[in-house]
Amino acid sequence: MKKEIPIFAPWLGVFETLKVINGEIQFFKEHFQSLKESSRVLGLKVPTEKRLLKVKLPLQNGRLRWIVDTQGFRFFFQEEKPNKRSSFVLGVSLVRLGCHNWDARYKTVSYLSHWQARQESENFDEVVLLNEWDQIASVSMGNIFWVKEGIVYTPSVDCGCRSGVVRNWVKKQVRVKEGRFGLDQLGIADEIFITNSMMGVQSVNRFLSRNFKLRKIVRTLQQEWKRTLKI
């Protein structure tokens, strides 16, 4: 018997945020695969690739959001200027993620934990989110990486982070060691950087009371990101 989805289910939905440059969607196929996977997990019907390709966008820079929920598919575009932030301060959130929660692993419209963490970060540009085992999971609006003695580290998806499009892009550029790590690892790191589809690769200049300089690995990734996007 086919399982019925309740009519009143405003929380049951997923989304993707896509960077748009001069009206052109970046990493279309990767975002489409991500949308399909998260929709499958929640039991939602994903639109076809052909349907998504029909979305008409202005010749502007900005962000596009695809949303799939129990009512179907919708989208909206918001014009934005390119991010030119040169400094980035990172803190730690009191909010905890459940490593098995859908909201931690997929971009669900139930974004409350991440949004709560974001709103509590008044003194920081971003905050680290830990899971229920006090392991590093992500930041409120993206993924986190750090470098120690030339090795790049990032939390495993089992810790409650998303297999983000830019996270996967970084893994294709450099060798990345995934695992379960405590917050102390950030305190001894040589470099820290965070990623999402809008900012790309953002270097962290300050974590709590410690300052960081832009070094080789992050600089190289930022340069390669610009080449990939042709900007």
Features:
231 residues; alpha+beta; D-amino Acid Aminotransferase, Chain A, domain 1; D-amino Acid Aminotransferase, Chain A, domain 2; 5-stranded mixed sheet; 14 strands; 32% strand; globular
Describe the model.
The strands form three sheets. Strands 7-6-5-13-14 form a five-stranded mixed sheet. The protein has seven helices and 14 strands. The mean pLDDT is 92. 26% of the residues lie in helices and 32% in strands. The protein has two domains: 67 residues, Aminotransferase class 4, branched-chain amino acid transferase, N-terminal domain (D-amino Acid Aminotransferase, Chain A, domain 1, 2-Layer Sandwich); 141 residues, D-amino Acid Aminotransferase, Chain A, domain 2. With 231 residues, the chain is an alpha+beta fold.
Number of helices: 7
N→C terminal distance: 51 Å
- Poorly predicted ranges (pLDDT <50, ≥5 residues)? none
Q: What's the average pLDDT?
A: 92
**Order of strands across the main sheet:** 7-6-5-13-14
The CATH topology of the largest domain: D-amino Acid Aminotransferase, Chain A, domain 2
Q: Helix and strand layout, with pairings?
A:
Elements: E1 13-21, E2 24-25, H1 28-42, H2 49-53, E3 62-69, E4 72-79, E5 89-97, H3 102-105, H4 112-119, E6 126-131, E7 136-139, E8 143-148, E9 151-155, H5 165-173, E10 176-179, H6 184-187, E11 191-196, E12 200-203, E13 206-207, E14 210-211, H7 216-229
Parallel strand pairs: 5-6, 5-13, 9-10
Antiparallel strand pairs: 1-2, 1-3, 3-4, 6-7, 8-9, 8-11, 11-12, 13-14
